[in-house]
Amino acid sequence: MAQSLNLDDLLAQIPLGDIAGKFGVDEATASAAVKQALPGLLGGLAVNASNDEGAGKLEAALQKHVGSSASGGLAAIDTDDGEKIVTHVLGDKRSDVVQALGAQAGDSGIAGLIPKLLPILAPIIMQFLAGGLSNQQAQSDNQGGGIGDLLGGLLGGGSGGSGNSGGGLGDLLGGLLGGGSGGSGNSGGGLGDLLGGLLGGK
Hints:
Layout: H1 7-12, H2 16-23, H3 27-48, H4 52-63, H5 79-90, H6 94-105, H7 108-139, H8 146-156, H9 168-180, H10 188-200
């Protein structure tokens, strides 16, 4: 049985001290902004991977990130690549997603960091998923659920209590991103509820 990825393990890969220093904020603010921004990217990736074609393309892209690491801190992160990843994942919904994430933050300082963080976080997420996918394939001869399972585990495992925050940002992002992806129009609840639970548990 493939081991699921854990959101805490992903957070541990993010150089919060470097990010705080770069943007002149304390580490608690940087951490809050990172936790607010991550579901937007993870949700976007989940929508992209919601059909076989999208999942195949994402898994192929992840192969380029196998073996790479963010252990070198912020300086080792290719933000130009991150910019391309964010553009591909969120497409023309990027500004809407950023606005929704910022509104949910309820703090202008955190909201202002979110668009700056996306190109930094995107390569870290890809590296993390590449490692998880590589491990999954090594452990399992039957292809399992592939990238969809890994993303589902990350999004679903993020909130212990999955507070009854209802739709909120989750439904909004689910609608925005779902509407942007060709087939998965009726993903409605699924992704939206996962995102809502992840953010509601904060």
